[in-house]
What does this fold into?
Amino acid sequence: MLSFIINNKEICTDLPSGMVLLDFIREEQHLTGTKEACREGECGACTVLVGTMCPDGISYKACASCILPIGDVKGCHIVTVEGLSGDTLNTVQRLIVENNASQCGFCTPGIVLSLTGFCLTSETFAYEDAIDALDGNICRCTGYVSIRSAARCLCEELRHICDNKNGRIPALIEAGVLPRYFLDIPARLKALASCSVSADTSSKCSNSNTVPVAGGTDLFVQKPEELRAAHIAFLSRRSDLNYIRAGDASLFIGSAVTIEEFRNSPEVLRYFPSMKSDLLRHSSHILRNKATLAGNIINASPVGDMSIILLALGARLVIEGKDGKTRNTPLEEFFLGYKKMAYSCGELVREIVIPLPSNTLFNFEKVSNRETLDIAAVNTAMHINISADDKIVDLRISAGGVAPIPLLVRGLEKFYGLKTVPDTCLAIADTVMNSVTPIDDIRGSAEYKKLLLKQLILAHFDTFGIRQVTK
Ligand SMILES: Cc1cc2nc3c(=O)[nH]c(=O)nc-3n(C[C@H](O)[C@H](O)[C@H](O)COP(=O)(O)OP(=O)(O)OC[C@H]3O[C@@H](n4cnc5c(N)ncnc54)[C@H](O)[C@@H]3O)c2cc1C
Ligand code: FES
Ligand code: FES
It folds into this structure.
């Protein structure tokens, strides 16, 4: 039996844990405010809030319900647009109306939920953050100017509650964003958990027929029907896999950590401050709230953004075998061929370890058709250590979209000891360009991708303040 709360109603169901939440909401609960459109996480029409109990209380995140299995929301509070307002519109809805930010209305519930998620999580109510929160919501008719105006008004109206000492949820109730029943939800979720008779074993990979699902943002796009009846291990439920720890020389990332948690982690940003904006280029807010680093690696896409970033950072994987023993594999040795990995069925990635060398510079570049919500035509990351007298001490460059695997470029040791003058940078860019053999596909011709990669390598140096003379 799965139990959770949708809006103000407790749910207990024995429907398969692989059924997607969108179907449960619309077909079983007849809550049709949550819209169905792409069913692939692309449009945001199905956005809901998922509230999960945590040591500090309850934490809400906006997620795409079309690729979210109900087994993953066991013990959670799900909020749809019907759960936000009573007899009158809530503050977010009112501002949408006042700013003429809805025309056909199909995208509007998703936009309301994403903005409400922003209200629950934003520290400062910065307008830019509100716009980032909407990066997974596509509107096809209103136009984004009026939606942005509604977001701006929301930030202005709520900025005063930043310092509210009573907590965010009471402050948002006061501000007319949330209804009053939100106050009782934590106690109701605790009661729901304690009256649940069966132990939760669904998060363990008990046999090789079990499918490990982390965020599900790949799997539930690829094979939702097959997964509906499958035996699933929900890795996001495993607190032992959900941590980011900084040691003396490495960062340790549990495999249940989401890309959004990584992007906002103080430990990560202390060493890699650009990650906050770099990872805005990965999918969208409603996906990053579920998608994990480990899922991106096991997906083994040649353009996987996290794989490209982690390759340049020299990461290694801690992999647990069926017998419970663990082994360490450098990520650069993990990808063997197109979607082939040094990994066998039934194994589990437990941890990703990122070394923390001092005095290094890091940069990530990505070119895709759309700025957000799109995979790369070509992406690349550079991690470079430059000595006090301006010589290259260490250099790692990764490149995606130019090989069957996420690629770590080899043979760059010949540049060690050279000064980072424009000629050296250009020679590095040429070496990288000439070392790859991309194929023609819908994202561009092989020749285009090679030239693009060269420009992106030069862009890394530009970002580090090493100016180029373009040739
Ligand atoms: C609309 C959309 C946009 C996207 N945009 C991008 C983008 O911009 N950049 C990008 O790189 N990707 C993108 N993706 C792909 C996807 O979001 C990422 O690959 C994501 O990181 C996958 O993580 P997940 O946790 O959701 O994986 P899941 O779907 O849960 O799993 C993926 C695979 O990994 C396995 N797995 C997961 N965790 C483990 C583990 N710990 N041990 C062993 N096996 C495991 C699963 O069994 C499965 O085979 C996009 C996807 C969608 C739907
Ligand atoms: S229906 Fe488009 S993101 Fe879910
Ligand atoms: S109002 Fe029609 S799609 Fe946004």
Observations:
- The mean pLDDT is 94.
